[in-house]
Amino acid sequence: MKFIHTGDFHIGASHPFSKHSDVMFRRATAMLSAVKKREVQMLFLTGDLFDRDDVKVSTVDTFFHRLAALDIPVFIVIGNHDMFLRNQAYKRHFTHKNIHTFNQDIRKHTMGDVDVYGFNTHDFDLEVLKTINDTLDKKRINVLCLHGDIMNARDEHYLTSHKTLQAMDFDYVALGHIHKHTTYNHVVYSGNIEPLDFSETEDKGFIEGSLEKPVKVTFHPSQQYRFIQNQLDISEGLDKAVEAYLFTHNSDEAMHTFHRITLIGQRDRVIDPHDAVFDGLKETFGHVEIKDETRPKFDDYKMLKKQYKGTVVEALVDIHEKEGDEDAFALALEALYESGEGFDDY
Ligand SMILES: [Mn+2]
Description:
Elements: E1 2-6, H1 23-37, E2 42-45, H2 57-69, E3 74-76, E4 99-100, E5 108-111, E6 114-118, H3 126-134, E7 141-147, H4 162-167, E8 172-176, E9 182-184, E10 187-189, E11 205-210, E12 216-221, E13 226-233, H5 238-249, E14 257-264, E15 266-267, H6 279-284, E16 287-292, E17 295-296, H7 301-307, H8 312-323, H9 326-339
Helix pairs in contact: 1-2, 7-8, 8-9
The structure holds manganese (II) ion.
């Protein structure tokens, strides 16, 4: 029996760079189209489908309508971001014959030879889970759906350790909350389907698997957007470096890539992020941020002495002109530059 495990859609979250306000909704519904196309028999949605409780009622309605239209059993864990789904106003969505969630009264749904267990974030209970584990029918395929952290005990939404979950007898543990796809054998975070900011540069996608013993899963990257952080050494010249960057990163999807470029190396002129030299990047990519971490080139002694007259830099240049040790001079200047002493704004 084939299944898809996905979640953390964060529908309603504002995307930092996209011009479209409903990016996450569009990507979530695209995900549902992929579910349909792949003809799987079950869908595990592991929480934070919506980003916050002020998401439009019509958006929630449309999403659940599409879920129901899949016409396969869908298991939904309610995450810390979409706890509003527990409100009375949304109860009707969970009365549809194919849409299932979990609560204190319902911990298990049975579908053919598969038993699906789950806890919503707010009512996770390790003791109850242990009791369930002790009574599992090991001849059946047992799936557990959760939303929360299993890596960092200090996380506000920490559940238990991945070791504890791995040691239990579930055949597959579908997790949400951590946006980075992470696997501990059969204990799996699908990760979110689209990155939300520069902290999410890894591949995004969903899990497709087969419910058998042992459960087999594959991660399918499916993201449309990508946040990219790079360093760019401009020591050989800013224009040349920018041109090479553009050449390397250009593609048909370039407008869907968002770049944070940190300039490093030695600069021979003052760098202005609004300089026309960056126009090509800005026209090609969906978003470009320039961070300047370059150091000035210290090879124009006359200029240095003139600019830093009466400072320790001037004194240093004087010494250098007498002693002439190039490396020592460069080191001394860099140390001063790093400490901020003796230099005003270069
Ligand atoms: Mn979460």
